[in-house]
Write a structure and sequence with these properties.
Length: 152
């Protein structure tokens, strides 16, 4: 009887550990089980997204305000079009706000940083960020540096 209780308790402990790992994996990956009913969609166009992916964070002053939901090519302007879902409680983004693709650390994950403008009118669902700054690509910087060194 003692052996049976020990086997059951070890099995329960292992099951709890597996559940904790699954929860941690979901949290780190940005997946969530909640619905996106409490968001509105805005867009931005970038010349180079440099590794930005769907489910990347959208932040303002380091605080999460939304997520990237889709990235596709704008066939009219031939640039990347990024679709973002912003939380409804962030209703103070002015129409002259800017969006930049930033990197967490030197080689970390890419995310979008939003800076608020000064206009009174707020962004609505379907609006575009007019002022955008594309990703800084490390390989391009190294190439420019090497090209300048060789040409001198």
């Amino acid at each position: 009887m003692r052996m049976r209780i020990m086997e059951i308790s070890v099995g329960a402990f292992i099951l709890a550990g597996i559940m904790a790992l699954v929860g941690l994996a979901l949290n780190v990956s940005g997946l969530s089980m909640s619905s996106s009913d409490d968001t509105y969609t805005v867009y931005a166009r970038f010349e180079n997204i440099g590794g930005l992916t769907a489910r990347s964070k959208v932040t303002m002053s380091g605080v999460l305000i939304g997520h990237v939901t889709n990235i596709d090519l704008d066939k009219d302007q031939l640039v990347a079009r990024v679709e973002m879902e912003i939380f409804n409680d962030v209703d103070f983004l002015s129409i002259d706000s800017s969006a930049s693709i930033l990197t967490a650390g030197l080689l970390g994950e890419k995310y979008i940083g939003v800076s608020v403008g000064f206009e009174e009118e707020s962004m609505q669902a379907g609006d575009y960020f007019e002022d955008t700054q594309s990703a800084l690509v490390l390989e391009d910087l190294v190439g420019k540096f090497l090209f300048n060194e060789v040409s001198e």
